[in-house]
Amino acid sequence: MKHKNPAKAVIVDEGGKAEGPGRQEHPPAEIAQKSVKEEAAPASPSGIERRFRQTDLPEHFIECRKHPRIRREQPPVPAPPRFEDYGPIIGKPELDEIRFLARHLRGKTIKMVNSTAVGGGVAEILNRLIPLMNELEIGTRWDVITGGNDFFEVTKGFHNALHGGEYNLTQQIIDIFMAYSEQNRKRMEFNEDLIVIHDPQPVGLVRSKSPEHGKWIWRCHIDLSNPHPRVWEFLKPLVEQYDATIFSAPSFTRQLASPQYLFYPSIDPLSEKNRELPEEFINKVCDDFGIDRSRPVITQISRFDRLKDPTGVVEAYKLVKKYVDCQLVLAGGGATDDPEGAVVLQEVMEAAGDDPDIIILNLPPWSALEINALQRASTVIVQKSLKEGFGLTVTEGLWKEKPVVAGAVGGITSQIVHKLTGVLVHSVEGCAYQIRYLLTHPEFAAQLGKNGKAHAKENFLITVSLKRWLVLFQILLGMAKPNAIL
Ligand code: UDP
Known about the structure:
By secondary structure, this protein is of the alpha/beta class. It has helices at about 60-65, 85-90, 90-105, 120-135, 150-160, 170-185, 230-240, 280-290, 310-320, 340-350, 370-375, 390-400, 410-415, 430-440, 440-460, 460-475, and strands at about 40, 50-55, 110-115, 140-145, 195-200, 215-220, 245, 260, 295-300, 325-335, 360-365, 380-385, 405, 425. The site of uridine-5'-diphosphate has 16 residues, from strand 10 and helix 12.
């Protein structure tokens, strides 16, 4: 991508810690701001009006920034990829190894259980993992527990409490949780060789475990490092009945009597979100959203959520913009039906002010291809979270060989090895410093991107997690030694 004036831009730490690969000389005087005659803009797709200052940007860009051409209808869902299709990505030896591991499990039966068939990362992973296991002739079924609103309110409360939130655990809450657990237990059968229960909502099903048959695994996708003590005290005896537990990061675990394993979440390199895209499509998406590909693009893809710190990203961009001509893309979704999301979106709009180079996109849920294109069109990908589970957007950025600047929180620290696979930041100033450094040191940025992709390929692809599952199943069924590969 062509940068307009990279030679002129110089990086300094804006008063925060020095976080870049070497401090630089003081910056030149601010680049003169463009004329600031205001013009009214019509309402944005979110219904929130934004005013743009007049610039010398071609009319086409201004028009598309005011009225981004967002797909309003869900496109048809493509056929899922086949196991064989991963060959060109991971290589034949790796495919053969997975097939070899799977062969030993042929004829075994597995059941995975979670609390929703659509929406959320767990459903997304199961949607891909289960067809692949069946294709490898390991009979795997997926069951979803049911419950009333009262149950899901309780489990949502548990979810927040397990992330450290305040909670008043009453006997009535425990009764609701256990009543639905029992109801689901009666409705379901557990005759499989391996039962995998995902997350806390169905954790109580373990009361159906029999000493004679079946191994039970609890796959916890959330961060349990700082749980509400009473909620955890209530759940822990259930968790300890499992034969194994799996967490997403070393820091997410608790001390437990049962064996623990570490599985990173994964992305599917062949999904619409991550597959290679023709350059014409990327150009079209940029065109539709008014993104100028001749200038650097900084992007954060995230729900409009304060913990993702979108206003911090705007502040960082404004610091960078003083020295490097660039654009900021903030793309998220779900804001219209999430009251907090709409409020945060409004805050972001206000923080962006009249700067026409801040492009805010409120995308519908079927925008995987567009998000993919935005990530691929980016010069730098940012994920300036203040708190984070794992941060799949970071994985997606790494996979696309992009330099990623991200908050040093949660699972992001498993993905970004500072200055090797990306850069970690702790402040707005640090974030600005790193973005500017990367924009002005394209070779270093390219190296980070390469390293990041290798790291993602090694650790965070669906095929890696499939292999780990197969090994763990063999361990639990006594077919492999516990120190085998995991
Ligand atoms: N995402 C999306 N549309 C949006 C915002 C996010 O599809 O408008 C996707 C994003 O690409 C990633 C996931 O949602 O795959 C977010 O996962 P992450 O772990 O980064 O954050 P979470 O939202 O789960 O906290």
